[in-house]
Write a structure and sequence with these properties.
The structure is a homodimer of 183-residue chains.
Chain A lengths: L4 H14 L5 H8 L3 H7 L3 H23 L6 H12 L3 H13 L7 H19 L9 H20 L8 H11 L8
The structure holds a DNA duplex (30 and 30 nucleotides).
Protein name (chains A, B): TetR/AcrR family transcriptional regulator
Pfam families (chains A, B): TetR_N
GO molecular function, one term (chains A, B): transcription cis-regulatory region binding
Chain lengths: 183, 183
DNA sequence: CTCATGTGAGACGTTCATGTCTCATTGGCT
DNA sequence: AGCCAATGAGACATGAACGTCTCACATGAG
């Protein structure tokens, strides 16, 4: 009966990922609480979305830590990264589209930190000679976001299996569509 | 002074891509007409979005035709495809996120046709031995959408140059991040 | 010139999401 | 048992977006 903030945030993320325009009443119902209680703990819809953003950033940074991006080859690091990011994909997909939904308004500083760490990973791969240099590290970061969101939605809508998620994204991002003749 | 339907649709697409929640008044102002006139020609916001969807589908199918997906190698076809799709990327990005915004509601039959043609292209590449078969053709289609949207937004927000668009997307989709040792 | 069509500006009513408030009830703690 | 804090249900007011309508004006055709 006691208010479970984390549970509410996860339920909200699940619903809003499927339907970004859901009303606060729908969010409350999905979380199993009343609209009044939702407003008691999050002063307004904006505050809820911001809390979701904070949660997403925290999970994302935790995933980056767990993936140990600086260790081993960049290729291995990217694989670990995608695997670590998989659990928070739906939240990421929601926040990704939410960011496109509105104009500038200055984005959360956390995203800049995450962007920087991802870009650094791709840059490391380029400097070590593993990754090609004709695709900028910034673009590779953007592409990773896009593929994560696309994969997340494909899974949600049943066009892809959740088990394939990590493989699909990591393989496409690293190896591309073309068949490799020789290793 | 005479009403230019096509011009209005393009202005609406440009604005809505940047700000999907724009008001009908903002859309009208962006198109240089009054809100009343906008409502005279499109009975409601839904009708406008549907018209945008029809336009996007038509342009997309025209691009598929122009790319001659059945000719040459699948790789060449994909490159022609990305190049042909580039002009309507912003419209595609808007419709892509718009589709995720709402639940099912049955999607336009045009998208199914386009999906089928794209999937067929990737399947052809797999059967000819050009493309790897551990990534399903359906997923490659989804990934293409995701990369197009990511690229479109990156260009809009100035994180990537429009000139690089075709190269960025086609190269990443086909070749991936990893450097090729031998051709 | 005259008239008709189409447009812009603005007012108006409606709908809907939202935030706040009240009040009865519940569940836990002493 | 008795008390306190938190919750759920519902009413209420507010504001925004929308669709419709009216009226004045302009442009083009006859």
């Amino acid at each position: 009966m006691s208010f479970d903030r984390d549970h509410v945030l996860r339920a909200a993320a699940d619903l809003l990922t499927r339907k970004a325009t859901a009303t606060t009443e729908e969010v409350a119902r999905a979380a199993g609480i009343s609209r009044a209680t939702l407003n008691r703990h999050f002063s307004g819809r904006d505050a809820l979305v911001r809390a979701l953003e904070d949660l997403g950033i925290a999970e994302c940074e935790a995933a980056l830590d767990a993936a140990r991006l600086a260790e081993g080859t960049a290729e291995e690091a990217v694989r670990r990264l995608v695997r670590a990011l998989e659990p928070c994909t739906s939240l990421l997909a929601f926040l990704y589209s939410e960011n496109q939904l509105f104009e500038g308004e200055g984005q959360h500083a956390g995203w800049s930190r995450i962007d920087a760490r991802l870009t650094e990973l791709f840059r490391r791969g380029q400097e070590s000679g593993e990754f090609r240099i004709d695709l900028s590290a910034v673009w590779l970061t953007e592409a990773l976001y896009g593929l994560l969101a696309a994969g997340g939605w494909a899974v949600i809508e049943g066009r892809a299996a959740r088990n394939d998620f990590t493989h699909m994204i990591a393989e496409l991002l690293l190896g591309g569509t073309m068949r490799r003749d020789a290793s």
